[in-house]
Structure formats: structure tokens, C-alpha cells
Fold this sequence. Notes:
By secondary structure, this protein is of the alpha+beta class.
Amino acid sequence: xxxxxxxxxxxxxxxxxxxxxxxxxxxxxxxxxxxxxxxxxxxxxxxxxxxxxxxxxxxxxxxxxxxxxxxxxxxxxxxxxxxxxxxxxxxxxxxxxxxxxxxxxxxxxxxxxxxxxxxxxxxxxxxxxxxxxxxxxxxxxxxxxxxxxxxxxxxxxxxxxxxxxxxxxxxxxxxxxxxxxxxxxxxxxxxxxxxxxxxxxxxxxxxxxxxxxxxxxxxxxxxxxxxxxxxxxxxxxxxxxxxxxxxxxxxxxxxxxxxxxxxxxxxxxxxxxxxxxxxxxxxxxxxxxxxxxxxxxxxxxxxxxxxxxxxxxxxxxxxxxxxxxxxxxxxxxxxxxxxxxxxxxxxxxxxxxxxxxxxxxxxxxxxxxxxxxxxxxxxxxxxxxxxxxxxxxxxxxxxxxxxxxxxxxxxxxxx
Length: 415
């Protein structure tokens, strides 16, 4: 006879409990499972910082490799870089789950004390965010985390950029209900990707990219000003030497277009510099450059991790705009990826820029998920999304709403 908590749960799933001493444990769901004394104990450890510990870094990254799709954004180094660069504005809440001395779950959160909610520590910097564990243990880990958030009286978790193909999505729906939370998810971004495929597919893709008329025209124009070349910087020293010019070019390009670069913020600059120093020893970061002679005209601050070459933050010198240097550099990255058997895909990440669609062979969907203990907030989130979706699907309705908002704004200014 199974108890109600066991219904619709995978075999072996467990519910967290607490001993008289206050230590967090996982217990079996019902009497038909093993006795409590026979169960392996999951010990939950909370930190209000990202500890600088080599053992934690090693165990954390070993868990990342067990993820269904390992990403550099999930690594210890990424969380540490965020915590160091944004320490004046972010309060971390690191949740670790141990089975004996083995780390089996990690989620790096941050707390908004004003709004009394949590969010992924890396959500402002990472294209993908997730709970880190093996897929087989995701449900019990997510269940444990929400039990602790409930104990801490934290009423909401805003989980941005969660991959739709992650085991966490299903775990959230199951675990949050147990602890009195409601979950609402909505589509966020479709991250364009280029799957490189087999040897034959790589050769075909390389030929298509290389023979594009637009690329040949642009490279010919650049070549009139000097030899065109590409390099990929990976060492700590070369990265630190080149980052200031990359940042300056990014800020200047946005300023020329009347926009504001995120690299104008000192914290963002500190983050990229910190991240470069932390990722370079493992070879996970690569700053690609397109050069005319000795002069860089385009850059991409990217990553090579678990078969993915990530096109993270590109820019170019606005003085060379007529030759599409950014397009040329991305083409050369795809060519290099085709030549490297360890690279399985080029991921172009967040953003719906048109040039990405011209390269893409597929996409990865992300979700924005709100988990809340408030029924009112849950209904508001759902209503806001569905109304916005309805307006967007009807051009006439969207036009009418924009006109109405324009009148309201004008009236407010006159008042």
C-alpha cells in the first residue's frame, strides 16, 4: 500500500525531513520503502558566499559533467566570477546537497531581500541556468531545495533562462506542489545553434559557409587594406592584454548606434576579466579576433566547453562596418569548428538577431519560470503572459494598445 506522497513519483524518490538536531535529511516516502536507518542521508549545506575551496570546485564541476547537457555557465568558476564581480549588489545563497562526503547537488541562488524572492545567481550573465546534479537525482534535489526555501520563508523563486529540455522542468512541477508552491513557465528565448554533424556534414557546411557570396565580397574588401587573418586567444596573459581593446570597441560601437553597452558598467568589465582568469587554465575560454594586418576589427568573447563553441559576446570596430567584420568572424569560427572534431556545435546563445538565423541549423528553447507561494501572484503572472501573447498575435490589437499607451503617456506629460 503506497502513501499519497508516493503517487506519480519515480521509484526510489525520497522526501526531505529533519532530525531532532535540525540536520536536513531525506526520508523514504512510505513504509514500503527501506527503513529510514537504511537510507543514505542527504545533508544540505547552505553558504552565503561562493567558498574558495579546491575540493568544492572539483566536485561541483564533476557534477556539471553529469548534466544532460553540460554548459560552462553551470561551472564553479562561473559562479565564483559572478560573486566576486557583483559582490556589492548580489547576496548569494549557495545550496549544496551531500550524500556522505559526496556532492550530489548544487544550485547557486541569490536573494532579493526587498522583494523576498530568490533567483539564479548567474541569471544576468549566463545564457542557460539550472540546478546542477545528475538527471536521475534532479527530482530529489529540487524537492530538498524547495523544502528549505519554505523553511526560510522565501515565497518565490524566479528561474530565468532554464533550458526547456532540462530534467529540472519536470522536477519543478512535481516538487513545488509538495511544498505549497505554484509554478508558471513561459517561453523565453530560442538560442540559435549550428550542429556540425558527421565528417561529411562538416565538409558540406564548411563549403557552404566559405562560398557565400557575401562573405567572399566582405573578405575581398578587407583584404584591400591588408592581410586578413583570425586568431583565438586562450592564455591568461593574452586575454588580459586584449580585453581592454575589446571592451573599448564594444562601448564605442553601441555609442555610435545611440545605445548603451553593458560593458560601460564597471561590474560587467570586472566580471569578464575575472571569468577570463578563472576559465583560462582549463582552456574553456577563447577570445577570437579578425585582424586586418595587425589591427583587430572584430572580436568574440566565447567559450569552448563540452563540445560547444559558444558565441557569447561579439563586437566589431565600427570604422569597418561596411565590410561586415562580425559576420566574417562568425563565419571563420564556424569553419574552425568544422575542422575541430572535438567541437560538436556552435551555440549562438540568447538574442534573435537576423544573422543568426542565416547560420542556424536548429535552436534550443529556454523558459522563464516563476515559482511562488502566492496564488494571487501566480494568477497575475499567468494573466499577464496570456494577455501579452494575445495582443502580440493580433497586429490590429497590438497597434490599438500602442496608440492607447501613447495617449496615456502624452496625457501624463501634459498633466
